[in-house]
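Agenda item 2: pyridoxal-5'-phosphate complex prediction
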Amino acid sequence: MTNNESSLLVAEGGKRTFHKDLTVPDPIPAPAFGRVEKILQSARLFRYSGPTAEESETAMLEKEFAEYLGVKYALAVSSCSSAIFVGLLSVGIEKGDKVLLPAFTFTAVPSSIVHAGAEPVLVECDDNYCINIADLERKMIEHPDAKVFLLSHMRGHVSDMGRVVELCEKHNVILMEDAAHSLGNRWGGQHSGTFGKIGCFSFQSTKMINAGEGGMLATDDDDIIARAIIYSGAYEKTWAKHITVSEKVAEYQNQLPAYNVRMSEVTAAIARPQIPIIEQKGARFRHNYFRLANILNRSPHIDVPERVENEVPVPNSIQFNLRGMTRERIRRFVDTMGQEGIKIAVFGLGEDNARCFWNWRYTDASNDELPQTEKMLRTACDLRLPVYLDVEDIDTMGGLIVRAIDYVTTNMKNRQPAS
Ligand SMILES: Cc1ncc(COP(=O)(O)O)c(C=O)c1O
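Presented output:
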């Protein structure tokens, strides 16, 4: 890009028009600071080192998280990936079993399946980033031995859960949800992550709860929670320091391996004060998302797909599909936005995006033919919308994106098709 081209977008005086740094995560609420300090002073950073469950930040986080979701049990772990891994083992996944999952997700998800010794089977996704229901049923029929469907609500896009649950029941497949991006999202009035046997959540910094790292497994099942607690690293009756625990846990003591993927007290102390603000953050995310979507949809080259019916989303990022643009124009668009301080990624544009299934070379599934998902990934854009953005920021971003698209589609020669 020449300076002349870029100055079509940047403000007078050659300065960037957008000033907030979108790589900064959502802020940590003030009460977390005091709690962390108290833990540091006590030196009791290990979840089982305190005298009682009620005095453990981790056990209390599990209780409050379960109450928020309206489930019986929650188990705090080191990450959402750990929750998925432990969850797969807890529902009975064994070496060589097949696990269905969307072809559009983050590499950590198929990795957890591989870690559990299972084989990922990818299912097509639609242009709205949700699971393709027809392909899901096709894959269930093609792989009658698939035990689990692990549905990632990727980037917080929750699929038609009525259809998903119906298909899992019809084909006798256990539903697990990867709700890493969808904490607070409801479909048909019900929390995402509570439709299947297990819901898995992430507290990594770009998620609804920012604790740096951390994850949560949620379930109503007495047996699953007992197994999961042992797998996560409870030993010698340390499970007595859990509040959301079933009596069955004693049966599994010393019967299952302990993978030690527990959460630390510091992480729990940072996460806990964020539960009461989920609804407030969710409302702000929704407002910003729909305002930006309206602006972007004015461009003939942008399609922000309609959300699925019955979904109340909590989107802390926006995805949109570029239409009728060459690969070169898409690249130029991304570069232009980068110069403005707005980092937009097109999933399938670079060499190594971890959300493109063809880059998951550790599994044979990366060679699968998934034309629909591939086509979507080649032109789908991804943009973070952290909670500190205000209406003015959203309008500035929307205006810049539309102008940049306008510029690259009218001022560049068409050379190479996008897909
Ligand atoms: C869709 C999805 N699922 C699962 C994970 C794994 O989360 P964690 O980093 O907590 O292991 C991620 C990570 O960003 C993700 O994007």
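Discussion summary: Residues 1-5 have pLDDT under 50 and may be disordered.
Owner for follow-up: CH.
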